[in-house]
Amino acid sequence: MPGKGSVQQSPDDAAAISAPDRTIRRKEAVARNRGGAGMSYFPLFVELSSKSCLVLGGGAVALRRYQVLRDFGAKVVILAPDLCPELSRRLAEDDGLSWIQHSLQPGDEPSLVDWLADTALVVAASDDSAMNRMLAAAASARHIPVSIADDPSVSTFLFPATVRRGLLCAGITSSGASPGLVQHLRQSLDEAWPDWLADVSKQLQGLRQIVLGEPVLSPQERRILFDDMVRQVLAQNGPLDQEQLAACRARLTQTGQAERAIAMSQEKGTSND
């Protein structure tokens, strides 16, 4: 049974299922999923590096939201009258965290105009549901994505449970139906993804740029090269060493040179005709 640190698949698995069968199964899965009740949230990954995000609340939930947002490079502004001890400690240490010391009240709408200026995301995580909804309404009116921690029905986005290895990231949500199930699945995925995937994703990014830099390669040829590279790293359950990486770069470069030579030869033959 494979444990953490390995990614295994049967070599016969892909061949055993024909392309038409896979298409049918995908269509059946889509039909089942569409039959579910309630909202269906589209998974969307957003660039938050150096973007300002406003979090209402200074307790444990706000702390968790702050940690996730900072992990993805956002700058976080906390709006709360008080901070929990851990947030207070982070405030003293983290230049990406700032605090508006204020208890949100009815009639604060004019102040919200300033607080929401240049804000990319809003998270309402206080224990006052009325103030959470007030902030959510102000954010939605300005077309700013907003999430209320305990009320998905008025949220325009949900926080997924995330698993991350370098450039590789997965997000899981139950659309607010079962946070416990989501956390269980997140833990299972975290145990299944080996740490070396962080190095592999970076290596494949560099190799992909070489392939994309060869305009003579057709989309199908690029796809074949990409698949070969992925299969190689997964087959050895780890990142390429320097010798293997150099060999991959050389092979990709030689493939591009060969394709360019063929293209030039064909052009020359056409001109001679």
What does this structure look like?
The protein has 273 residues and is of the alpha/beta class. 51% of the residues lie in helices and 13% in strands. The chain has 3 domains: 52-159, NAD(P)-binding Rossmann-like Domain (Rossmann fold), CATH 3.40.50; 160-193, Double Stranded RNA Binding Domain; 197-264. The chain has 10 helices and 7 strands. A 5-stranded parallel sheet has the order 3-2-1-4-5, sandwiched between helices. Strand 4, helix 6 and strand 5 (146-148) form a beta-alpha-beta unit. The chain is elongated, with a radius of gyration of 25 Å.
Explain the layout of strands and helices.
Layout: H1 13-16, H2 19-34, E1 52-56, H3 60-71, E2 75-80, H4 85-93, E3 97-101, H5 109-115, E4 119-124, H6 129-141, E5 146-148, E6 161-165, E7 168-172, H7 179-192, H8 197-212, H9 219-235, H10 242-272
Parallel strand pairs: 1-2, 1-4, 2-3, 4-5
Antiparallel strand pairs: 6-7
Helix pairs in contact: 8-9, 8-10
Unreliable spans? 10-16
Judged by helices, strands and strand pairing, the structural class is alpha/beta
CATH H-level superfamily title of the largest domain: NAD(P)-binding Rossmann-like Domain
Beta-strand portion reads 5-15%
